[in-house]
Amino acid sequence: MATASAHHTARTQADEAADEAARTAAYEVVFDAAVAADERIEPRDWMPDAYRSTLVRQIAQHAHSEIIGMQPEANWITRAPSLRRKAILMAKVQDEAGHGLYLYSAAETLGVSRDELLDKLHSGRQKYSSIFNYPTLTWADVGAIGWLVDGAAITNQVPLCRCSYGPYARAMIRVCKEESFHQRQGYELLLALSQGTPEQHAMAQDAVDRWWWPSLMMFGPPDDESSHSAQSMAWKIKRHSNDELRQRFVDICVPQAESLGLTLPDPDLVWNEERGHHDFGAIDWTEFWEVLKGNGPCNDQRITQRRRAHEEGAWVREAAAAYADKHTNRAVGSTSTTGETGATRA
Ligand SMILES: [Fe+2]
Ligand SMILES: [Fe+2]
To answer: Where is the composition biased (Low complexity) (predicted)?
Structure first.
């Protein structure tokens, strides 16, 4: 009797495992077909675990970059040369905070909490773009960041508006509109400096000299060293390779630098008629990996400042939570009063 029952249980478990595998396989067919047909995957849809974890990693890293990226520019808000420039810069830095918030919300639709992601940022278990580990030494850096860093961000992010994951793709549409404003304000700021006094022109040139190469590194390692690229392209999270996007960015920047009257710091930068693209010099990948490992000029400063801002903001989060609780309780209270009244009447 006991043997028969055990045998029965074992068969049932095996059947369940087989059913589960068949279900997963069927879901996978639906998922693959949706991706192939350029449909959006939505939060409640079935998705492979690796697709989910890739998105969490990418969206979290993107969100972290938006909020850490506020620091180098916020450094110049109090020293902006005019009220107009100060207002523009404040709006821009505030936009970046907003981008962080859309992106944390998009990540939350994948089943992770914002607290968990911030913990990972603060403890160094998740990364942010290494570009923000460089210092902003002069006012012209605000212009160079807008033109080059936000410009590189747009080149990267426009294809993400067609990313297969719905909430991420939709967040990117608004983010890209704002990034386009950021890029133009940087360009306009640099143009004013470039056409200003010889000292202002030199300041603009110096900023471009320092930000050009790190901007090219923003597209990530070369295609043959990029570990996640192939799978992300197959899932249509990514639409173009790192090297393709980098090339597109270089081709966009060359004529813009000419109109600015500034020189891009690369003696090997030359139009290649045959390829229909600009050739450019070798990127110092040793520097990229060092900054990524935490050895950039401002890594410690950025993460220390972020942790401090988080701690100092604890009272705001507590107050907001208490306020939300009070309103939830009030709503629940009023519902139950109505219920009691109804019960009395009955
Ligand atoms: Fe942004
Ligand atoms: Fe931006």
So the answer is: 333-346
| C-alpha 183 – ligand 1 centre gap (Å) | 10
Give which of 293, 164, 157, 156 is closest to 231, Cα–Cα.
164
Kindly list the structural domains of the chain, giving each domain's residue range(s) and its CATH number in brackets, ordered by start. Answer: 22-329 (1.20.1260.10)
Gap from CA of 201 to ligand 2 centroid (Å): 24
Between the CA of 326 and the centroid of ligand 1 the distance, in Å, is: 34
Residues constituting the chain: 346
∠ CA 116-51-97, nearest 5°, is 45
Q: From ligand 2's centre to the CA of 98, what distance in Å? A: 10
Alpha carbons 74 and 144: distance in angstroms, whole number: 14
**DSSP-assigned states of every residue in 33-75:** HHHHTTPPB-TTS---HHHHHHHHHHHHHHHHHHHHTHHHHHT
165 pairs with which residues across the strands? 41
| Ligand at shortest distance from the CA of 152 | 2
Catalogue the E-assigned strands of 150-265.
Answer: none
Nearest ligand, CA 171: 1
How far apart are alpha carbons 96 and 66 in whole angstroms?
5
pLDDT tens string 273-311: 999 999 999 999 999 999 988 899 999 999 999 999 999
Angstrom distance (rounded) from CA 234 to CA 105 = 25
Of 285, 159, 163, 274, nearest to 216 (Cα)?
A: 285
Cα-to-centroid distance, 96 and ligand 1 (Å): 4
How far, in Å, is the centroid of ligand 1 from the Cα of 2?
A: 65
CA angle 280, 128, 154 (to 5 degrees): 50
Interval between CA 3 and ligand 1 midpoint (Å): 64
Distance 244 CA to ligand 1 centre (A): 21
pLDDT digits (tens, 9 = 90+) for 80-108: 999 999 999 999 999 999 999 999 999 99
With beta carbons less than 8 A apart as the criterion, state whether 190 and 203 touch.
no
Dihedral in degrees, nearest 10, Cα atoms 306, 311, 315, 318: 90
Task: Specify the pTM.
Answer: 0.88
